[in-house]
Amino acid sequence: MRDLVNTHEWKALQSHFEVIRDSHMRDLFTEDPDRFNKFSVSACDVLLDYSKNRITSESLDLLVALAEACDVKAEVQRMYAGERINSTEDRSVLHTALRLPKTESLVVYGEDVVEQIHAVSDHANAFVNKVRNKEWTGYTGKPITDIVNIGIGGSDLGPLMVCEALKPWQQKDLNFHFVSNVDGSHIAEVINQVDMQTTLFIIASKTFTTQETLANARSARSAFLTSDAAEKDIAKHFVAVSTNAEAVSAFGIDTNNMFRFWDWVGGRYSLWSSIGLSIRLSVGNENYDALLDGAYQMDRHFAEADYKQNIPVLLALLGVWYGNFFNARSHAIEPYDQYLHRFAAYLQQLDMESNGKRVQIDGSEINYKTGPVIWGEPGTNGQHAFFQLIHQGTDMIPADFIAPIKSQNAIGNHHEMLLANFFAQTEALMTGKTLQQAESELRDKGIEEAQIAALAPHKVFEGNRPTNTIMVNELTPKALGSLIAMYEHKVFVQGKIWGVNSFDQWGVELGKQLATAILGEMQSGKVGVHDSSTSGLLEHYLKSQSK
Ligand code: F6P
Question: Which residues are 107's β-sheet partners?
Fold first, then answer.
């Protein structure tokens, strides 16, 4: 068992924290006017300014020493090479291989995975071109107008987030729908909107056993068959993306219409695999390739750059600094780009399913904090909702502010206004407003002293609230690919430091098992043995049902 908190590097950070905890970033900026140059880095068209963090050069040295002690670089090489670093599932972790160009080769346990990946890509490319060019038609000969991706978790969040982010690149005569929730309202609303003769359903499930996805897929199929369509027409309207050919075939989908991938692609890392079929259909193969290329560039940067110049490593270390030393329990994601409105939701799964763990890889219990709560909404909307708490609440909430320099929609001065807010927020969070400033502002307005004394404390902003500013020139497919890979690698580094397996997700299993048992009880009307709350609720439900 590795005793992280008793390592020399951890203890050095703890002592350093005692020194730095009371310093204010305002003073750090006054003392060192070169902070921006010192604490910002550019790579893969991404600028990271991390100067508005509660760090000095010494903090950075100590954090980097921690990364070195945790052997992050060696683990990156192990992952890239296809070693089975996902030990609890005995699997390799090779989403980075999905981004390798055709010209490369990567032999893992005797097989060239790059060759396999590109063979599947060619299959998907050809299909995508047919649909987009209207050569693939529905059973009545009409071209496809609506694409419905049925999946959940990684088989939904990644494709949905990317399709939304790249809307300006979307083929305009295709409508995209994403159904994930087992709540029948989700599929019903989509079924009500589409014409079955021109709809293509993509059943996206790595395992093809996920209860929600199969229920939605079955309902879609029965809605299809209760329109004028017949069984034989399913082949033109249902395709599958999965690693499980047997289950796909048992469901009734022709395996020629199945786009495969491999168990070494984790669900939350799967948008780069065939799970990205809906993205390809939306933006076309060329743009999807640009997305992959952006991620590939970030993969190279992550593997090659020194820790102090390495964007994912820096982001990870700052997260550890706040989570483990300042006791920050959540991390906000603030994209100042409406197209990134599902980015925080996507990152929730990526980060929380990866690092929401309580034991180390060897099974020993952890005595320090691991993954934070990830949350956020696009700016400027967030400013009018929850920013109050980030500015003046009692918790420290580190935040990533993300924005493109160029807008996809140059309407009036909207983008300038958006970016003015973007810059202003991180400045305000860092600088804050002192009591003296608050009082003198009120005085300037001619307010009486008694009222100033009552009001001023409410107008104080402590400041010293950490933010990372992340900018890309434009939210292109390539830039988006780099941004996503940047976060994947950040999560990887944190997982390595905390010593957890970032690639399993056993924590979702218990609820699934209990739901299966409870569903049986609900259907039979016989409540099994539970705690009194669960039994009471089930009986309440069954009684109400029978009325
Ligand atoms: O609920 C957990 C999970 O296994 C995720 O990790 C995964 O992305 C999701 O379910 C969907 O799984 P599948 O693609 O196998 O349907």
Answer: 112
Residue type, 540: H
**In the 3-class helix/strand/coil scheme, how is 68-108 assigned residue by residue?**
HHCCHHHHHHHHHHCCCCECCCCECCCCCHHHCCCCCCCEE
User: What's the whole-number mean pLDDT along residues 350-365?
Assistant: 97
Q: What is the pLDDT of residues 245-276, one digit of tens each?
A: 999 999 999 999 999 999 999 999 999 999 99
Angle at 496 between CA 494 and CA 501, to 5 degrees: 105
Task: Kindly give the distance from the C-alpha atom of residue 208 to the centroid of ligand 1, in angstroms, as a whole number.
Answer: 9
Residue 515 alpha carbon to ligand 1 centre in Å: 16
Tokens of 194: 């589409």
Tokens of 514: 């209990």
Instruction: Tell me the CA–centroid distance for residue 505 and ligand 1, in Å.
Output: 9
Amino acid at 179: V
CB of 242 within 6 A of ligand 1: the answer is no
Residue 366 has pLDDT above 90, yes or no: yes
Q: Do residues 207 and 177 touch, judged by C-beta distance below 8 A? A: no
Task: Say which residue the tokens 């990567």 belong to.
Answer: 106
Provide DSSP, 438-492. HHHHHHHTT--HHHHHHHGGGG-B-----EEEEEEEE--HHHHHHHHHHHHHHHH
Query: Which atom of ligand 1 approaches the CA of 505 most closely?
Result: 6
Residue 1 has pLDDT above 90, yes or no: no
In sequence order, the 6+-apart residues with CB closer than 8 A to the CB of 179 are 148, 149, 150, 186, 187, 190, 216, 220
Q: Is 515 in the pocket of ligand 1 (CB under 6 A)?
A: no
- Closest ligand 1 atom, residue 242 Cα: 14
Contact 210, 251 (CB under 8 A): no
Ligand 1 neighbour 335 (Cβ under 6 A): no
Rg (CA), the chain: 26
Question: pTM here?
Answer: 0.97
Residue 207 CB less than 6 A away from ligand 1: yes
Residues recognised as catalytic: 353, 384, 512
**CA-wise closest residue to 268 among 206, 338, 337:** 206
Residue 234: CB within 6 Å of ligand 1? no
